[in-house]
Structure formats: C-alpha cells, structure tokens
Amino acid sequence: MIAACEPEALQDMAKVAAPSQTKQRIMLAGSLAALLIAGGLVWYSFGGETPLRQANERVFMCAETGKTFFHELESGEIEPIYSPHSKQNTGWIAEPCYWTNDGRAKKEPTWVIERRRMGLEGKTYCPDCGREVVGHNPRPPKELMDAAE
Ligand SMILES: [Zn+2]
What we know:
Blueprint: H1 7-47, H2 51-56, E1 57-62, E2 68-72, E3 81-82, E4 89-93, E5 95-99, E6 105-112, E7 124-125, E8 132-133, H3 142-146
Antiparallel strand pairs: 1-2, 1-4, 3-4, 5-6, 7-8
The structure holds zinc ion.
Zinc ion is lined by residues 97, 99, 110, 126, 128-129, 131.
C-alpha cells in the first residue's frame, strides 16, 4: 500500500497506462474510419446508379433528330417529353427492334417510335429490317438472341 504511493510506483503506472491510451486512440480512429466507410456505402447506394433506378429508366427517341436518350418517366409526365437533342418536347418512348434485315437477331437494337404512340395512322415499320414494330415489341426467339452479335 505504502509502496504504491511512492513517486516511482506512480511513474510505473503511467508507463503502463500510456500504451492502453494509444490503443484506445487507435480503436477510436478505427471506428471513425468504419463510420466513414459505412457513410460512403450509404451515399453510394442512394446516390449512385442502382439497378432499380436503371430498371425505371426507359429509352426515348427524339422525333426531331432521331437520336435516343435515357429518361425516367415521372408520374404525371406525359409524352412527348423534353428532348435534350432538339431542346423541345419531341421525346417519345422508343420500341427496340432486335432483328437484322437478313432475319437474324442483334444485341444492339434499332430504336423505333411507334406511329400510334404519336397519334399517327398506319403501322410502324423498322427502318433497318422492315419488320412491323408494335408496343412492347417482342424480341426474336431466344435461340436467335443467344446467337446474336
Ligand atoms: Zn428492325
């Protein structure tokens, strides 16, 4: 008891205490880093491109320029929507045609705006293969899609 109150003994205790304080600091730094990483992951999953968000996006085609762009249709939004290409409301939902003109399938579709969608009469034909394009245009059979280039 008496020995513990001597200055030398206190110094020894300080020496013992020092490493554990350092250890606590390291642990604190470690948990801060973990928090930052967790925060980063949360930011990434909410702010980044998630599969869900891509699923809501649709391909639109600008009727003025014939160029396509991605857009997520919000509720209450009606076509034609604003097209970044024409800078006017000339954007329509486009239908993909995966046929080639020699009857095979392709991986990169030709995008076509269905005439009926724009309030026009008559059937819609793909400018590339000449096949009729309808709403929710069906893909070629699976075996053709598997062999598609
Ligand atoms: Zn086609």
